[in-house]
Amino acid sequence: MIVSKEQVFTLAKEGKLWAGNLIEGFTSAACKIENRTPIDNSKIGYIADGDARDVDAAVKVARNTFEVGTWSQLSPGERKKIMIRWSKLLEEHSEELAALDCVDAGKPITECINTDIPATIETFYWYAEAIDKVFGKVAPTGKDALGLIITEPIGVVGAVLPWNFPAQMFAWKVAPALAAGNSVVVKPAELTSLSAFRMIELAYEAGVPKGALSMVCGLGEKVGKPLGRHMDVDVISFTGSTEVGRYFLKYSAESNLKEIILECGGKSPQVVFEDADLDAAVPHILSAAFWNMSENCSCGSRLIVHESIKEELLEKLKSGLTSWKVGNPMDESVSIGPMVEEAHFNKVKSFLDITFQEGGRLVTGGQIRCDLGSGWYIEPTIFDNVTANMTLFQNEVFGPILAVSTFETEEEAIALANDTSYGLAASFYSQNVQRTIRVARAIKAGTVSVNGFSEGDITTPFGGFKQSGFGGKDNGLEAFEQYVQTKVIWYVHS
Hints:
Elements: H1 5-13, E1 17-19, E2 32-36, E3 43-48, H2 52-68, H3 76-92, H4 94-105, H5 109-130, E4 137-138, E5 145-153, E6 156-160, H6 166-179, E7 183-187, H7 194-206, E8 213-215, H8 220-229, E9 235-239, H9 242-254, E10 259-263, E11 269-272, H10 278-290, E12 302-306, H11 310-321, H12 342-357, E13 361-364, E14 381-384, H13 391-394, E15 401-407, H14 410-417, E16 422-423, E17 425-429, H15 433-442, E18 447-450, E19 465-466, H16 478-481, E20 484-492
Parallel strand pairs: 1-3, 6-7, 6-9, 7-8, 9-10, 11-12, 11-17, 12-15, 14-15, 17-18
Antiparallel strand pairs: 2-3, 4-5, 5-20, 13-14, 16-19
């Protein structure tokens, strides 16, 4: 049945939304966790309170399915057909999925409908189509041998998801891992499990074997940790904080040395040179800084601007922000919703106090909207006079606070851009072609966008440098590489 966004909103109001464990042949004895929406902190339903028993059951089913070959040994063409059917079902249920992410994460419904869910569906279609278009190689041997270089699915993949883009991050991990022939166990963020649950139900409807795709809901300590330490999981693909990423490296060392793929935090710079087209740049700068309430790893949270144009740019940014309405994300005119939970709200709020104490100058925003719903709403905020030694310059906020710093020379701009332990993304603005080439090469980040804010698209690999993560890339054909292993078959001619 196709469910409208209005029906989802009604079910949320009635507290009837549910996300449970999806494990073939296993009924969990786990309790339930109350699920509250950040919109007004009301109860919208429950999720399963999974634990190590659920993880173990899911991994056993996944391993058995992989070894039997129900999914892993299907021809690429058969896997492709099933995943295309799944993609079509996701398309039919796109409004429902958008509404689930809206009420679960507090994401603006317009963004969910127009950006997140279309990108999610595109990811599934893209990897479905890529399944039978990835080839092995033949080594350049002499006449006495034939060397075949092939790839095989690696086995059981644990996909540990963040809460900021629930559906899209599900797609980034599950689509290539499943397309490559692996069995996948999904651990969604406990704050945002609804869309993952629904997408897996649709996967089963499309023909994905239940043993090839499982889901365990619950807290990180009770689900994420046992998954990371499990001796029969071959890969953990994790997106989230650098702090938690370190734990998965530790879990790997303590268990079977499973491969760990990390996409962690960021403190991305936006550099604006004196020759930039400011009117063209402003919408991109604001999107980089405040899109998705700045709950975005690639958020352009440091604006590094040539001192000669700073005041002009700040006035344009203030003017541009007038159209960014703060409010209930179910309202299609709203651009900024709440922080995802009270603990995160308090963390983000603390950066306001710290920046004032350290000498930052408030340009605009800075208000807590206690009059709205849960009260976890923070106006888009810009601080000027932020120096490299200040907390706001160095620490990831994951909330709508932009730090503004100035420079005089290109060398100083590059040094400031690179003055961070992170290296996920960056953007800069200049109409000097030679400068764009120099700066793009000099900035230490996995994705550098020129004269605009972008993370690339499904065709380009996404991942970071330094403490923003390593071990693989999301998106592009490169994503397949982290879910397969390379084998050489060597034929000797007698």
